[in-house]
Specification:
The protein has one domain. It is an all-alpha fold. Helix content is about 85%, strand content about 0%. About 35% of the residues are buried. The protein is built from nine helices and no strands.
Amino acid sequence: MPPGLNPYQKAKVHVTQKRSQLQRFFHGAGDLVSFAGRYFREVVRPPYEWREIFYQCYLVGYKSIFLIGLTAFIMGVVLTIQTRPSMADFGAISLIPGMISVSVVREIGPVITALICCGKIGSRMGAELGSMKVTEQIDAMEVSAINPFRYLVVTRTLATTLMIPLLAIFADAIALYGGFVAMNIHDTTSLRHFFVAALGHLGFIDVVPSIIKTFFFGFVIGLIGCYKGWHARRGTESVGVAANSAVVASSLAVFIIDMLAAQITDLLL
């Protein structure tokens, strides 16, 4: 803010800046909706880039298994260790497997998996497409009669939409196994008995909504990551900005979708 302004002028400048920020926000939101509309038009229009889709599924799914599995295992161990003293005070040790399964399957597993993918996959897509934008590789693809949007955006967004639900299911299973390992630190129980007790507390309303929302998680992670990279400005600095903003925006979108899913699930109970 320029020095030497009176209070009225300072208030006027402040209002102008806020209005400019609000305008940029709505402009970006409208641009993102238009970007998503183009994705839905291109995803159903042949020909399909099957080779690139499978390759992106490999990068999103297989390359993330170790990180997702390790995080889920630690999550299951920590959740069990932290809750056992409270459950022991009430003599409810036998309810720990059910508590872990409901907590992990309904909320912790899908959200933690999505947030990890925001940092690992969303940033990669933002930086990858941003560097291609800066070096004019996308323009070269258009000159070569290749549809860059279908090859770059549709394949990546489709891969995240399909693979993140599978990663979330994998994370749920590994987290339950981590709970079993932590349970045997103080008590002795068999793997079969633990999983029977854990799965016995899960119902339709626990499993299905949690799986459905992971498809939306994957969609927004891929779409926002590609959007930020696709609209990167000229200059190498914009590549880092695209990667960083992709992580922040997709993480925020995951929390918003999770909040809406929780409200809808609560209405169905």
